[in-house]
Design a protein that fits this description.
Blueprint lengths: L6 H11 L9 E5 L4 H12 L3 E3 L2 E4 L10 E4 L3 E4 L1 H6 L4 H23 L11 E5 L7 H11 L5 E8 L2 H7 L5 E6 L19 H23 L6
Parallel strand pairs: 1-2, 1-6, 6-7, 7-8
Antiparallel strand pairs: 3-4, 4-5
Helix pairs in contact: 1-2, 2-7, 4-7
Amino acid sequence: MDRFHDRREAGILLARALSRYAGRGDVTVLGLPRGGVPVAYEVATALDAPLDVLVVRKIGVPGHEELAVGAIASGGIQVVDPRMAQQLGASARQLRDRLDAERAELERRERAFRGDRPYPELAGRTVILIDDGLATGSSMYAAVAAVGTRNPAHIVVGVPVGSPEVCRAFRTHVDDVVCLHSPDPMYAVGLWYEDFSQTPDGEVRSLLERAAERRAAAARREAQPIQPG
């Protein structure tokens, strides 16, 4: 498969595959920051849906930070495999310390991205969770668990690229999975992008603000009285 140029292109292409959710009043798009937000922005724009973030932090262990043994998400959600951590040589204390550090970072990002804005109302809605890719799936599993506590009508997972096994596994956990490409072997998400540079906090905030302004402008247009011809 050809690589995506960047997350913006990936989001545009993913939005086309999610077009059946366009123009509906019950859809909310949640991006997993930071890299999932530029993808989610394009999806939300194309679907004419509100955009927000769901903060998730992967849990690695010392010496194996690239291998996620779990994740935490907004709302106190924690998905951790202590047996895998033990197999990688992490003690219970090391795992606890890593969890504490990631919780602190999760809270910082919540403040940085959301500020004083309340968490979006998800009850009865179709929630589309977007990330820039699925490798182990630990972050997305935590995201699905977090959204599930908010009583949504449906949960959809959308990614530009993902491990075939992980994408298949999610089909038993959510209502719909849209994965544009499932290379086998996949190795790492970043290999499938020409530009996989880090997404700064400022870009995440900017995209969320632009999405909110777009929705507010649309609401103002709809509220304007029809002028007689």
